[in-house]
Design brief:
This protein is mainly beta and 181 residues long. It is built from 1 helix and 14 strands; from the N terminus they run αββββββββββββββ. Helices cover 8% and strands 39% of the residues.
Length: 181
């Protein structure tokens, strides 16, 4: 069994190839065209003949900027972990009440082409995952791990779990037993 996240010095070219294949597949599914228009599934930078997408994150908010190059509906997926009350939409620089359609914000094609800006909150949460008898305490900002304890000292994937985090009262990591802020 490999207890370190990188399996020590064991080469794993099959895993590397699978990861690369997955990244390519994810990139090709950022933006899809469907019967209802352009559907943006992933908040990643992307560009093709249909649209340019830019994703930015700050400490408290995420922003997705979309410049469609067609006159059709645009549906942008809202991450389920963000509070709907935090979602803000601008089309052509003007605020617009978001038209929520399932997990998506729908922007009508008659407003296109115009720059779309979707802003949303990045809530800070925590959880405990038990793996191979060890409780790992994870601190999240949106869908990004921003801290973990215990952490690996051998090429750690994530930063150490901080003792306190603004916007989320955090007990000392060794005392953390709650699953959410």
């Amino acid at each position: 069994m490999h207890l370190e996240p990188h399996s020590g010095t064991t080469p794993t070219t099959d895993v590397t190839a699978a990861c690369l294949h997955t990244l390519a597949d994810v990139y090709h599914h950022v933006l899809l065209r469907g019967d209802s228009g352009l559907k943006i599934l992933l908040h990643l930078d992307y560009e093709d003949s249909r649209a340019r997408i830019r994703s930015r994150r700050g400490e408290r908010t995420g922003r997705l900027t979309v410049l469609p190059r067609t006159r059709e509906n645009v549906l942008i997926r809202i991450p389920r972990w963000t509070p709907l009350s935090s979602v803000r939409l601008k089309v052509g620089g003007a605020p617009l009440d978001p038209n929520i359609y399932g997990d998506f914000v729908l922007v009508a094609g008659n407003l296109m082409p115009a720059e779309i800006t979707l802003e949303y909150g990045l809530p800070v949460t925590r959880e405990v995952e038990r793996t191979t008898g060890v409780d790992y305490h994870l601190l999240w900002r949106g869908d990004e791990v921003i801290g973990i304890t215990p952490n690996s000292r051998f090429y750690p994937f994530y930063p150490d779990y901080p003792e306190e985090t603004e916007g989320c009262a955090m007990p000392a990591a060794r005392d953390c037993i709650a699953s959410r802020c």
